[in-house]
Amino acid sequence: MPTLILVRHGRSTANTEGLLAGRTPGVALDEHGQRQASGLVRRLGELPLVAAVSSPLRRCQDTLAPLAEARPGLPLHTEERVNECDYGQWSGRKLAELNDEPLMTTVQRHPSSAAFPGGESMRAMQHRAVEAVRDWNARVEEEHGANAVYLMCSHGDVIKSIVADALGMHLDLFQRISVGPCSATAIAYTPLRPFLLRLGDTGELGSLAPPVPTDEESGRERGAQGNATVGGSA
């Protein structure tokens, strides 16, 4: 199955202002975030991406804009299911004041039971995001083969919940995962289990390119190759 590169959007104006942006419309990248987005093109290097999938929110779309310009043939898709968590009445509020809300303790310590007033639960967020990944994995493999690599640009909590699922972690542990703005997380999905290749990486990503198979290897399943590599003694 394919390898997924999860990219969190670059630093936004809400990040620098200490706001919980949620789905507030019009939240853009700040100047540093714009530089991060431009640098993503170099970081991805020669990684043979077959598709890019994005949250519908502007800060994700803007993060992928330089990549789309540099690779005009790269298909770019919008996926509602990897949208930011719907924080409801918390959206747009300062994080400093939200820390005094009793619900924040639940969000941090028992997120599987947390539901935002006028918004969605964290369980629902994880469910829709993981279903989106599974659907896109199947689509990408069908269209491009098991060695394909694709990118998905989303949001911190969404990416953390996808990583928790890949690691077999309960959602209540997902706050232990950290993914900074414009960081990349790579998950290789196989028929047996996923493998976390990178987490919150802000360096180069070209080394994640799949090896070019020899004629002898061309008929082998990537899943078998991945299991052999991970199970080695190195």
Folded structure, characterized:
- With about 230 residues, this protein is of the alpha/beta class.
- It contains 8 helices and 6 strands.
- A 6-stranded mixed β-sheet has the order 3-2-4-1-5-6, with helices on both faces.
- Strand 5 and strand 6 form a beta hairpin.
- The longest helix has 23 residues.
- The protein starts with a strand and ends with a helix.
CA(first)-CA(last) distance: 24 Å
Coarse shape: globular
Number of strands: 6
SS class: alpha/beta
Percent range for helical residues?
Answer: 25-40%
Proportion of beta-strand residues: 5-15%
For the largest beta sheet, what order do the strands appear in spatially? 3-2-4-1-5-6
The tally of helices reads: 8
Q: How many domains?
A: 1
Stated plainly, the CATH topology is called: Rossmann fold
**Biggest sheet descriptor:** 6 strands, mixed
CATH superfamily: Phosphoglycerate mutase-like
Q: What is the overall pLDDT average?
A: 91
- Unreliable spans: 217-234
* CATH level-two architecture: 3-Layer(aba) Sandwich
Q: Secondary-structure element order, as H and E?
A: EHHEHEHHHEHEEH
In the CATH scheme, the class would be Alpha Beta
User: For the CA atoms, what is the radius of gyration?
Assistant: 18 Å
